[in-house]
Amino acid sequence: MHGLKRLIIFISMFAAISEAQYLLPITKNETTKQYYTTINIGSAANSPVNLLLDIGTDLSWLNCRKIKSLSSLHLVPCQSPTCKSIPSNACDGKHCLYLQQSPFVKNHTVSTVDRVVQDKATISTKVSFRPFTFSCVAQTHIQGLSPPIAGVLGLSPGEFPFWRQVTRAFNIIPRFAICLPSSGNGNFFIGGGGFGVSMTLTPLKIVGSDYLISPTSIYVDGIPLSLNPSLLESGAKLSTVVPYTVLQTDIYNALASAFTRKAIKIGMSEIPRLAPFKHCFQEGSSMRINEELMNVTSVEIGLPGNGREVKWTFHGKNTVVRVLETVICLAFVDGGEKPKESMVIGTHQLQDYILNFDMSTTRLAFSDSLLLHNFSCSA
Ligand SMILES: *[C@@H]1O[C@H](CO)[C@@H](O)[C@H](O)[C@H]1NC(C)=O
Ligand SMILES: *[C@@H]1O[C@H](CO)[C@@H](O)[C@H](O)[C@H]1NC(C)=O
Ligand SMILES: *[C@@H]1O[C@H](CO)[C@@H](O)[C@H](O)[C@H]1NC(C)=O
Ligand SMILES: *[C@@H]1O[C@H](CO)[C@@H](O)[C@H](O)[C@H]1NC(C)=O
Fold first, then answer.
1. Which ligand neighbours the alpha carbon of 297 most closely?
2. Which one of 136, 203, 225, 359 is least enclosed by Cβ atoms within 10 Å?
3. Mind listing the pLDDT tens digit for each residue in 260-318?
4. Does the beta carbon of 38 sit less than 6 angstroms from any atom of ligand 2?
5. Domains located in the chain, CATH noted
């Protein structure tokens, strides 16, 4: 498991695409369930900025007042190729403007302060590249992000996400991996790819600025839910900002009733809902859920693999959440009858897995839960 912790920097002197891997930290705010990384922006020796990880954002944005020294920051002219390649950019007559929608507040409109800028970025403490293109936004657009987070690091499949700017700058394989910690610090890798654990592959579907996977069935303790197949057709979006997986009502209900039957069978009793959760259970006096394993019912998603179905298995720590000493809730949310996406897989489900988004093959590689290996993203 040392491979996970080891920082591998291999700077190729040749033009060939290298296997270099850059490692950045991921920190979880326990209160807000927001995950962020830290990079240095600007020419100052040490100018850390904390940015929310969002795999649905293309161009990174932040409150540029949080940058220690603005001396090397420069505006991007409207006529530059960079500005022209940013979809739906605007121009104040001279400088390029762009407002990336916040993952939390969707209705902002671009204003003259939302400028596209470039500066030096430093990752892994010593490795720098420039230009890093991002945008500065007005303070009012930061709402929804809690301190110490100053903005959003875009990791979408688009043209300008941070990972793509890094892999282009260093001519490394266009891929990145995240290991979201359930507590403390996890890891964010760019390039490279050896993780020392076995990984399962499934195709990624790119829709707009989102990554989706294509579930073919959902199982509870190995038994498939009976679902109208059209419900799964649109795929499942992956999100690093949604805390709990959101399911269309019919999918949610099927999952919740299968889960409830199992929970009652192993001695739990259903109790009234505790928002935002709809299905909560009291542990029986004679039973105790093993805190490390949270050994309750497993939920699996069947996915297309290499010519056969592969399963992504979620165990107790990813399927339930402990809300009181003896009470656990099913950690999924009912998204309503007609949500925009019928499945959005959120961070409670994604944490303690290694997820490798490989855009050289447009595939997602996912590990087993590291908890099964007596390991976690923060270990
Ligand atoms: C954005 O939407 C929120 C909630 O729907 C509303 O309260 C707010 O006034 C809107 N802001 C703008 C700038 O339209
Ligand atoms: C987490 O977010 C809360 C709510 O905004 C904030 O008060 C707190 O300082 C943050 N915690 C850490 C460790 O940054
Ligand atoms: C969970 O694990 C604990 C300790 O290993 C065991 O006592 C308990 O019966 C298990 N519960 C279930 C539901 O399997
Ligand atoms: C898991 O880790 C704990 C503490 O680090 C250790 O006591 C235990 O023996 C380990 N279990 C296995 C199966 O490796």
1. 3
2. 203
3. 999 888 888 999 999 999 999 998 776 667 666 677 889 999 999 989 999 999 998 99
4. no
5. 22-171 (2.40.70.10), 199-373 (2.40.70.10)
- Its pTM stands at 0.89
**CA–centroid distance, residue 146 to ligand 2 (Å):** 6
Instruction: Determine the Cα–Cα distance for residues 324 and 254; give it in Å rounded to an integer.
Output: 25
**What is the distance between the alpha carbons of residues 69 and 32, in angstroms, rounded to a whole number?**
29
Residues in the chain: 379
In short, whether 148's Cβ falls inside 6 Å of ligand 2 is yes
* CB of 266 shorter than 6 A to ligand 3: yes
Tell me the C-alpha distance between 143 and 102, whole Å. Answer: 9
Q: Are 111 and 93 in contact (CB under 8 A)?
A: no
Task: Report the nearest-CA residue for atom 9 of ligand 2.
Answer: 147
| Helix locations, 295-339, DSSP H | 316-319
Biggest CA–CA distance in the chain, Å, is: 72
CA-closest residue to ligand 3 atom 5? 290
- Compute the distance between CA of residue 52 and CA of residue 309 in angstroms, rounded to an integer: 33
CA distance 106 to 122: 30
Does the CB atom of residue 228 touch ligand 2 within 6 A? no
* Token pair 């104040």 in the structure block, residue: 92
- Distance of CA 372 from the midpoint of ligand 4 (Å): 11
